[in-house]
Write a structure and sequence with these properties.
AldOxase/xan_DH_MoCoBD2; Ald_Oxase/Xan_DH_a/b_sf; AldOxase/xan_DH_Mopterin-bd_sf; oxidoreductase; molybdenum
């Protein structure tokens, strides 16, 4: 294969993922596979109650168990921590933030709250010892429902705060009252975003090793954010960040749930410091259901004002967002993050948004794939279908009448932010053509006319999302306590190979492959000659890690710019060695040559050697081919797309079958099509799962009813259809590659498409609302209730 620096040849191709060989042959390195000599195994005793005061803790029997080294409570460890677990997104000045100790001290606030830790010489003994610890609990009333939590006289999750109200965050653009006053039609919807469990293939794990000298620690942890873990562990444990090395080995998925500093990481470091021995903890799946953050958890009230012709004039959004018992790293900001995309792809003049955060005695919520944007897309696509039914119009036609016209430079949208570029109608019509939309509508009419027991529904999920999180100034504007830049170093070795050091930290996204493609094109080498280093703060000391569809449009762009700088330096050295002007050089196939001459030129590998020898460089030039770049984008990127689900609903059983699913996405230019398809497959699967299967359920006392995978249903491959994927390409003007990101898009567009399809199939029977998950029982009962209502009205 021939490559030229000016005309990329690897970017845009489905280069096989280099990560996969180790992952599928058992040669990957997981945190649970790391056990240094002398390791003590940690187990956490977790509260079985949602809300209770902690009385006496009797650990005598546990301490007497052979192999147990120590048992410690929150009181025992209070001196080990400088602060509690931090919240990094205090969205308002008056937000209420409860103290969050790594181990509960006086009170437990959700099932799974840690009460004591056991350290033993093996994991089995540590688990056995948990059953020997007796705790005297004084049970307190539990707060489970977020609407009831705000009622006068409701029990308090944190009595010291005096309220369950965490914060109120408002946004208003334009004259919303006037828009609703002049509207011909006002449609209101109330939609529920149920709690879901991220359920990464690899549960969390951490190993902390104290180094023999210098008071330093190495922390191996299954995380998306090794740099965050380093910085936050330093604060919580009172250790210099220069003394903490964090390594994220192979990480088996995260979906946002590993975008955090967790209690177990802080406990492991504190205990390793206290005992001077390595400490290891690996989460069980049942622990994962109560101790790892949950996703979603919102009640959405949305209203649109429109003309009789279907043109939207204004939108109001009011959210109640379930914080859970504590504020984890990003908990308050997740709902707020979606504030800017409830307007979707649609063009209108007035918009208001308000969100109240509410404490409950449940596991804290935090980021989950598509965080904030998935919830927004679900609401605006549900209300678009509700508006279409109110007006007697086709759902696609209502959308087409309201789409923002094509634009290639940033423009302000109803929520007041600037989208980067978009051509929404082209994308939507392409998706409609893929499923043969008009033919499906004709089939739907035929089935209804003949009273078929299996009805057909077509659901549309239009969306845009704020990817490329985030410009540092914008982050500061919404009080996010983190910069939005990303770092990269690209260097050529003496032997002519390429090393890329990236601050992003992949957990399945394929960075090693894609970043190698980017560097290979810039430097005229083969991707196999590029090594990508990541996930180790000693190797990559600067980074903001991986989440929020930011890896490519921030981290990948940083690699691109750094590689271009290396290529520019190589060009200058080559010109010097060839005694030519830089402007006269051609760079083809990794070789510099003088245009119009027949000389052999010089390879970039030869230039790298010359740069290392440094005995014949241009005056004032430093040795070696290396460059750093910290990219802080001027704006988010805004990927978008249209997903269409075609569903069949058995009206006698409520069973839903997805007959066809098509998605047309626009993430700008694509680096690796196979990786994009894989990201979309996984994201769509998660969105379908929320729509049809998944829900974290609690009883009235805050006890989880979905504590294991026997009760919590997520789909397997046999539950999912074939996905038909296509794309449009609208480059982003915010970065030199024009890329936008794809990691969350599938999860954002799919849930509304699926639920809209199910409701569309049975709307003529009187069923115009269903909440997720749309189980067969829910559908069957809704059809029955609608039939009874129709019968009563007829009689």
């Amino acid at each position: 294969m021939t490559q030229t620096a000016e005309t990329p040849t690897y970017v845009g191709q489905s280069v096989p993922r280099r990560e996969d060989a180790a992952l599928i042959t058992g040669r990957a390195t997981w945190t649970d596979g790391i056990t240094p000599p002398g390791t003590l195994h940690m187990a956490v005793l977790r509260s079985p109650l949602a809300h209770a005061r902690i009385g006496a803790v009797d650990a005598s029997a546990a301490r007497a168990l052979p192999g147990v080294v120590t048992v410690l409570t929150g009181d025992d460890l209070k001196g080990e921590f400088a602060i509690g677990l931090p919240c990094g997104w205090p969205v308002t000045e008056d937000i209420k933030i409860p103290d969050h100790p790594p181990l509960a001290v006086r009170e437990v606030n959700h099932v799974g709250d840690g009460v004591a830790v056991v350290l033993a010489t093996d994991a089995h003994t540590a688990q056995e010892a948990l059953g020997l610890i007796e705790v005297d609990y004084e049970e307190l009333p539990a707060v489970v429902d977020i609407e009831a939590a705000l009622a006068p006289g409701a029990p308090l999750v944190h009595e010291e705060l005096g309220t369950n109200h965490c914060y109120t965050w408002p946004l208003a653009v334009g004259d919303v009252d006037a828009a609703f006053a002049q509207a011909d039609v006002v449609v209101e919807g109330r939609y529920v975003q149920q709690r879901v469990l991220p359920s990464a293939m690899e549960p969390r794990a951490v190993v902390v090793t104290p180094e023999p000298v210098g008071g330093a620690f190495t922390v191996y942890t299954s995380t998306q954010v090794p740099h965050f873990v380093r910085d936050l562990l330093a604060l919580v444990c009172g250790v210099s960040d220069s003394k903490i090395r964090v390594v994220a080995p192979d990480v088996g998925g995260g979906f946002g749930s590993k975008l955090n500093l967790y209690a177990e990481e802080a406990l492991a470091l504190a205990l390793a410091r206290r005992l001077g021995r390595p400490v290891k903890w690996t989460e069980t799946r049942s622990e994962n259901h109560v101790a790892t953050t949950h996703g979603r958890g919102q009640i959405q009230k949305i209203a649109v004002a429109a003309t009789r012709e279907g043109k939207i004039l204004g939108m109001r959004v009011e959210l109640l967002a379930d914080m859970g018992a504590y504020l984890q790293l990003l908990t308050p900001g997740i709902a707020v993050f979606g504030a800017f995309t409830y307007c979707g792809l649609y063009d209108f003049g007035a918009y208001s948004f308000g969100c109240k955060g509410v404490f409950t005695n449940l596991t804290p919520t935090d980021a989950y794939r598509g965080a904030g944007r998935s919830e927004a897309a679900y609401a605006h696509e549900r209300i678009m279908d509700d508006l279409a039914r109110e007006l007697g119009m086709d759902p696609a036609e209502v959308r087409l009448r309201n789409l923002i016209p094509p634009f290639s430079e940033p423009r302000t949208v109803p929520s007041g932010v600037m989208y980067d570029s978009g051509d929404y109608e082209t994308t939507m019509r392409k998706a409609m053509d893929l499923v043969e939309y008009d033919r499906l509508r004709a089939e739907q009419r035929e089935r209804r006319e003949r009273g078929d027991t299996v009805q057909l529904g077509i659901g549309i999920g239009n969306f845009t999302e704020s990817g490329g999180l985030s410009p540092s100034k914008v982050a500061a504007g919404v009080r996010l306590q983190s910069g939005g830049w990303e770092a990269a170093t690209v260097r050529m070795t003496v032997g002519g190979k390429v090393e890329v050091v990236t601050g992003t930290s992949p957990h399945g996204q394929g960075h090693e492959t894609a970043w190698a493609q980017i560097a290979a094109d810039a430097l005229g080498v083969h991707p196999d000659d590029v090594e990508v280093l990541h996930g180790d703060t000693a190797v990559a000391p600067f980074g903001r890690d991986t989440y929020g569809s930011r890896s490519l449009p921030v981290g990948g762009v940083a690699v691109h710019v750094a590689a271009q700088r290396v290529a520019a330096k190589a060009r200058a050295i080559a010109a010097h060695l060839l005694e030519a002007s830089e402007d006269d050089l051609e760079f083809t196939g990794g070789r510099f040559s003088v245009a119009g001459t027949s000389g052999p030129g010089i390879t970039i590998q030869e230039v790298a050697l010359a740069a290392s020898l440094a005995n014949d460089l241009p005056e004032g030039m430093e040795p070696n081919l290396t460059a750093d770049h910290h990219f802080d984008p001027p704006n988010f990127t805004w990927p978008f797309g249209t997903h269409i689900c075609v569903a069949e609903v058995d009206t006698q059983t409520g069973r839903v079958t997805i007959r066809r699913y098509a998605a047309v996405d626009d993430c700008g230019p694509v680096v690796n099509p196979a990786i994009v398809e894989g990201q979309l497959h996984g994201g769509i699967a998660q969105g379908v799962a929320q729509a049809l299967y998944e829900e974290a359920v609690y009883d009235a006392d805050g006890n989880p009813r979905t504590g294991t995978l026997a009760e919590y249903h997520f789909p397997t491959a046999v539950d999912l259809p074939h996905f038909t994927l296509d794309q449009t390409v609208t480059p982003s003007p915010t970065n030199p590659m024009g890329v936008k990101g794809i990691g969350e898009s599938g999860a954002i567009g799919s849930s509304p498409a699926v639920v809209n399809a199910v409701i569309d199939a049975v709307a003529h029977l009187g069923v115009t609302h269903l909440d997720m998950p749309v189980t067969p029982e829910k559908v069957w009962r809704a059809i029955g209730r609608a039939g009874q209502t129709a019968g009563t009205m007829t009689s």
